[in-house]
């Protein structure tokens, strides 16, 4: 809701009620609050790519995957419906009732991601892949207790800042979906709510990229963290001047 509504204000307000920064802040705040809301209950599985990665790694039973995916889908779909209702009058005024995916008054991008006109499908795929790699690397180092992990209680805030950073640096090409659960349910909602099947044809046929690239990027991020960080970490000693160095005993 925070993310989509911030996009709606920028688009429908014609730049008078926010800019690129406000969109990224909206998504960062939403992620932070989502982790606080669901962290203690389910581990805050807000991202289908990360959930699937946990199943592949054996950290989450496959039998739980449908429930997590359904919850993510319903949450994101409901968020899109909420923002649609919140800004329905503004949408109608902006488009004169003609909801389009492309063109000067296109509004489908409020809800789902679409590549910029100059971006090829391959470039867009690579962008989503790299952005998700950075997301996973960031999450893993934030929670890495063998390394210099975040202070207890700050993980949600830092993850929100991580999403903000990804948006600030990698959001221009494709809107940084980095999450199938963030992209597909709102896209389905727009297809139902008046934009039609063009939401799946635009891009061209961009819709499958935010589903597949984040999953591959998530797996790659875990592999990179394992190879270049995790296997080189030593447990932090109970006492010592530096990690891995015994303390000098003093009387």
From TrEMBL:
<keyword id="KW-0472">Membrane</keyword>
<keyword id="KW-0813">Transport</keyword>
<dbReference type="InterPro" id="IPR050363">
    <property type="entry name" value="MIP/Aquaporin"/>
</dbReference>
<protein>
    <submittedName>
        <fullName>AQP7 protein</fullName>
    </submittedName>
</protein>
<comment type="similarity">
    <text>Belongs to the MIP/aquaporin (TC 1.A.8) family.</text>
</comment>
<feature type="transmembrane region" description="Helical">
    <location>
        <begin position="125"/>
        <end position="144"/>
    </location>
</feature>
<feature type="transmembrane region" description="Helical">
    <location>
        <begin position="156"/>
        <end position="178"/>
    </location>
</feature>
<keyword id="KW-1133">Transmembrane helix</keyword>
<dbReference type="GO" id="GO:0016323">
    <property type="term" value="C:basolateral plasma membrane"/>
</dbReference>
<feature type="transmembrane region" description="Helical">
    <location>
        <begin position="205"/>
        <end position="224"/>
    </location>
</feature>
<keyword id="KW-0812">Transmembrane</keyword>
<dbReference type="Pfam" id="PF00230">
    <property type="entry name" value="MIP"/>
</dbReference>
<dbReference type="GO" id="GO:0015250">
    <property type="term" value="F:water channel activity"/>
</dbReference>
<dbReference type="GO" id="GO:0015204">
    <property type="term" value="F:urea transmembrane transporter activity"/>
</dbReference>
<dbReference type="InterPro" id="IPR000425">
    <property type="entry name" value="MIP"/>
</dbReference>
<dbReference type="GO" id="GO:0015254">
    <property type="term" value="F:glycerol channel activity"/>
</dbReference>
<feature type="transmembrane region" description="Helical">
    <location>
        <begin position="67"/>
        <end position="88"/>
    </location>
</feature>
<dbReference type="InterPro" id="IPR023271">
    <property type="entry name" value="Aquaporin-like"/>
</dbReference>
């Amino acid at each position: 809701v925070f993310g989509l509504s911030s996009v709606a204000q920028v688009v429908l307000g014609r730049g008078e009620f926010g800019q690129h920064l406000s969109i990224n802040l909206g998504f960062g705040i939403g992620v932070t609050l989502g982790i606080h809301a669901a962290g203690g209950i389910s581990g805050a599985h807000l991202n289908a790519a990360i959930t699937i990665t946990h199943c592949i790694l054996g950290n989450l039973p496959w039998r739980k995957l449908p429930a997590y995916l359904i919850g993510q889908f319903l949450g994101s779909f409901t968020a899109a419906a909420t923002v649609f209702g919140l800004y329905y009058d503004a949408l109608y005024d902006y488009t004169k009732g003609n909801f389009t995916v492309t063109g000067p008054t296109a509004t489908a991008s409020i809800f789902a991601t679409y590549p910029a006109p100059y971006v090829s499908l391959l470039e867009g795929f690579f962008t989503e892949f790299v952005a998700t790699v950075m997301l996973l690397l960031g999450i893993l180092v934030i929670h890495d207790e063998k390394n210099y992990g975040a202070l207890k209680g700050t993980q949600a805030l830092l993850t929100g800042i991580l999403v903000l950073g990804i948006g600030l640096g990698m959001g221009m090409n494709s809107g940084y979906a980095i999450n199938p659960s963030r992209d597909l349910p709102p896209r389905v909602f727009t297809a139902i709510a008046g934009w039609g099947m063009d939401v799946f044809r635009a891009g061209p046929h961009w819709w499958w990229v935010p589903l597949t690239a984040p999953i591959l990027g998530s797996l790659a991020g875990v592999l990179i963290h394992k190879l270049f960080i995790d296997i080189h970490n030593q447990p932090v000693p109970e006492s010592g001047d530096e990690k891995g160095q015994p303390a000098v005993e003093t009387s």
